Amino acid sequence: MVILLSGIDIVGYSLLGILLVANFSIAITVVFVERKKPSTALLWVAVLFFLPIFGFLLYLVFGQNIYKERIFRLKEEDDHIAKTLIASQEERLSRIHVPFEDKAGDYLNMVTMLLRNDGAVLSNDNTMEVYTNGYAKFEALMEAIAGAEDFIHLEYYIIRNDTLSRQITSALVAKAREGVTVRVLGDAVGCHGLPRNFFSELMDAGGEVAFFFRSKYLHINMRVNYRNHRKIAIIDGKTGFIGGYNIGDEYLGKGPLGNWRDTHLKITGTAVHSLQVRFFMDWNHAAGADLGFDERYFPVMEEREGALVQIVASGPDSRGEAIKKGYLSLIHNARESVWIQTPYFIPDASIMDALTIAAESGVDVRIMVPCKPDHPFVYWAGFSYLWELMESGVRVYTYDDGFIHAKTVTVDGIAASVGSANWDIRSFSLNFEANAFLYRGGVPATLKQIFADDIASCTEVTPEMYGQRTHLMRFKESFSRLFSGIL
């Protein structure tokens, strides 16, 4: 018996030794190879050495960037080629005279920054519709699909195997049989529940389907890093959709979270060309194709005066964190109000400082988040930051009528952003996102009014509630915040 126990001990010590060596190797990689931010690197090293088994598993799922540079350097090269191919469109758009009137002129520097940082061309001929109800949004999308004459391009993070997805797919099949070019781009993880034959009928009809970051890479980065989180659609190069809705019954309020409150835009105007560019770049990378950027995909728009729009994209293949910089610029330009809606709120130090400075300067800063978590760990970590901001005068609301998934910010009712990017570190640097930044026109004021209307379905979280939290809740928030920099 003693010999047997000794053997077990030897095996146990050997496994522990192997694990410690592996953790030490990972720590070296984090510090000297991946060159993460100092605070993130220090946190990973602490987790790996103080929680060896848990830290090792956590790193496999959330942390590793193995081959990231090689994988996305190829995408950067593809994107550069794409931007070169459409230089004529960008040059033409950049020459448009945009009369920034009144307070909208305060955002000229921001527009220039996003143009230089992300190549986000400003267009001034757009009309927009705002959807906060899934039925209305998908009815508009189905109507646009039914009216398509040349092509339909859809790019969504999640496509479910359910009634709504099958309805949209059936509509795409019908258009493909009419000779309309149909391309659907999903994310390999977001669409992992789809049967292998889900798009068979569409492909048989001549449609094309691709998935971003397919399984051949998933063994490298497991499941959560570098996902294509964008939700955009382009029909005939004239109509585009961008926002927070994925495709599935839950976005009609039929899921376990109940009523689904989200925000999406329908855009008609030259900003649709920028959505088209983004789709082409993602499609060429995911499908290994070269669509060629034919003029067919960029029809000349009727000249008119409309809303000012920049389509801004960011992801791990870009260095600038353009959407986060856009958020920061909006906050810094605020004179009266900054109203934010987001399902996930895990800001970095720059966002925290900007919101704190704004609130302490007398700007009316409000943040609306869900009352119920779909990712508890993230939810609890988020509240640890919200409590801190309340000390600076930020007002916080929890949305009680189901789940709020909108990713919006409106500043002074003059400028705004709507898209796929949450206010968290994952959206800022680890996922591929796309947002529309809006200046002038009626949409920023409309979004502010929508926020005000949503307050009727909210509970305001007060500083008094902070002291009334249970010890268990305090523990959840503190523990979750420890790992917020790496999740």
From TrEMBL:
InterPro entries referenced in this protein's UniProt entry, alphabetically: Cardiolipin_synth_Firmi, Cardiolipin_synthase, CLS_N, PLD-like_dom, PLipase_D/transphosphatidylase
Domain PLD phosphodiesterase: 224-251, 400-427
GO terms under biological process: cardiolipin biosynthetic process
UniProt GO molecular function: cardiolipin synthase activity
Chain ranges passing through the membrane: 12-33, 40-62
Compartments (UniProt record): Cell membrane
Family annotation (Gene3D superfamilies): Endonuclease Chain A
Keyword Lipid biosynthesis included in the entry's annotation: yes
Chief subcellular location: membrane
Pfam families given in the database record: PLDc_2 (PF13091), PLDc_N (PF13396)
Domain of life: Archaea
Cellular component terms per the entry's GO annotation: plasma membrane
CDD domains assigned to the protein according to its UniProt record, in alphabetical order: PLDc_CLS_1, PLDc_CLS_2
Membrane topology listed for this record: Multi-pass membrane protein
Keyword Membrane: yes
Record's keyword terms, sorted: Cell membrane, Lipid biosynthesis, Lipid metabolism, Membrane, Phospholipid biosynthesis, Phospholipid metabolism, Repeat, Transferase, Transmembrane, Transmembrane helix
PANTHER family: CARDIOLIPIN SYNTHASE, PHOSPHOLIPASE D
Name of this protein: Cardiolipin synthase
